[in-house]
Amino acid sequence: MSLKTYAGKRDFNVTSEPAAESGRGHERPIFVIQEHHASRLHWDFRLEADEVLKSWAVTKEPVPDTSIRRLAVEVEDHPLAYADFSGDIPEGEYGAGHVEIWDHGTYRNLMAGKEKPMTLAESIEAGHVEVELHGKKLRGGFALIRMKGNDGRNWLLVKMKDDEARHDSKAQEAAKKEKPEHAKPTGRRRTQRQERPAPPEEIECSSTGKMMFPETGITKGDVLAYYGRIADRLIPHLRDRPMTLERLPDGLASAKSPHFWQKDTPDYYPDWIPRAALETEDGRTVEYLLVNDRQTLLYLVNQGTITFHPWLSRIGSLDRPDYVLFDLDPGESSFADAIAVAREIRSVLANEGIDAYAKSSGKTGLHVLAPWHGDGAYDEARTWAMEIAECVTDSLPDAATTERRKSARRGRLYLDVMQNARGHHVVPPYVLRAVPGATISTPLRWEEVTDDLAPDRFDIGSIFRRISHQKDDPIAPLLAAFRNK
Ligand code: MN
User: Fold this and answer.
1) SS (H, E, C) the chain
2) What is the tens place of the pLDDT at every residue in 134-168?
3) Could you tell me the residue ranges of all domains in the chain?
4) Which of 134, 185, 213, 446 could make a disulfide contact with 218, Cβ separation 3.0–4.6 Å?
């Protein structure tokens, strides 16, 4: 095996990556997965064979879930010593960015035990690899299957069904259904992302005449129409973020109407709705759904979802928020205080060279959002947000406090940054709130954040008039500030 390509891409006077020398093979072959924060975050999956590491760049975090297939792009062979490499590839070098070992261990070549046994190199040649991984995060059978196109460099990484697999039964159901449904191509999405069945073109809606907001005469049909029209602005704020749904299937019909919060995805939800299985702190697995397309959005609204509450981080780097949220809850103080505090946050952030974005919460408060540019995870982002918040409360000691205890707030506005934490969810721009006025959490231009602003001014009945007069979406630049995943 040649490491020529590997060597040709690198200047070993500059990078600290291992030299292009083949090593001594291990008695039990090894695998390693490196999390690589290059211009695009990816996971490098490497299997020892013929004294080098055969390598694939996996575009998303590998998961032991049989229903999820990951695109794995074949890349050049790496030296065996690369399995121990972690650190920073300098700017300007090939693959510049941070590398860390995500998982490692040994593997067994399952193709060696087939009727026609193959070595790992032979199975790569044949376009069908099956290995049993003995790692810390990944265990059990994984298959790599070569796809057509891209000169055969595109593969799919798939968890095989075994005791280590998650959601086995669901995957089997999906596989059963998949055959008849996908005998012929069912749309663009299917060919682009081969992970799930394509969503249907149209979502069937039921009980559209049901009164959801009796005070304002808003029906379920109105709510569906709202979300259908706002989808293009809203979905970019939801995409790839684990979601909590605030569901009121009967709306605000009465104080006794059901009102619940849903994290886990019920089994009966259709297969085309994307999901992310995440482990909670107490070791349970919650299957969060992801609202990545209009069909999913409308399906969930039809199920009685009024408000979508996403995480601040996305699949691919769930520990690092894309932005921080300053939640300005006036409580017993006045909305004028919220205005003053929001403007002060903006000015403190401006001193750090960071743009801030304001929106109404849709209830009584204001939200200020700022992109998180640091590499750090939630704890670091929250510490930073708290420093900003404390600068603000130092300037406006009579108006605002970061004091969590209600009794210590003494009527001042609570400037809350504690929601910037893994597993917490927030109110994103453009969602409808479950309050009688059918208000919308509405992005604001800073010129509008003045004493003339009413917290509940924007609602389902007026929002599109407002939008039709806007040249640009005031919160779009926040999305542009997020790091590519
Ligand atoms: Mn890489």
Assistant:
1) CCCHHHHHCCCCCCCCCCCCCCCCCCCCCEEEEEEEECCCEEEEEEEEECCEEEEEEECCCCCCECCCEEEEEEEEEEEHHHHHCCEEECCCCCCCEEEEEEEEEEEEEHHHHCCCCCCHHHHHHHCEEEEEEECCCCEEEEEEEECCCHHHCEEEEEECCCCCCECHHHHHHHHHHHHHHCCCCCCHHHHHCCCCCCCCCCCCCCCCCCEEECCCCEEHHHHHHHHHHHHHHHHHHHCCCCEEEEECCCCCCCCCCCCEEECCCCCCCCCCCCEEEEECCCCCEEEEECCCCHHHHHHHHHCCEEEEEECCCCCCCCCCCCEEEEEEECCCCCHHHHHHHHHHHHHHHHHCCCCCEEEECCCCCEEEEEECCCCCCHHHHHHHHHHHHHHHHHHCCCCEECCCCHHHHCCCEEEECCCCCCCCCCCCCCCECCCCCCEECCEECHHHCCCCCCCCCCECCCHHHHHHCCCCCCCHHHHHCCCCC
2) 999 999 999 999 988 778 899 999 999 888 777 54
3) 4-166, 210-485
4) 213
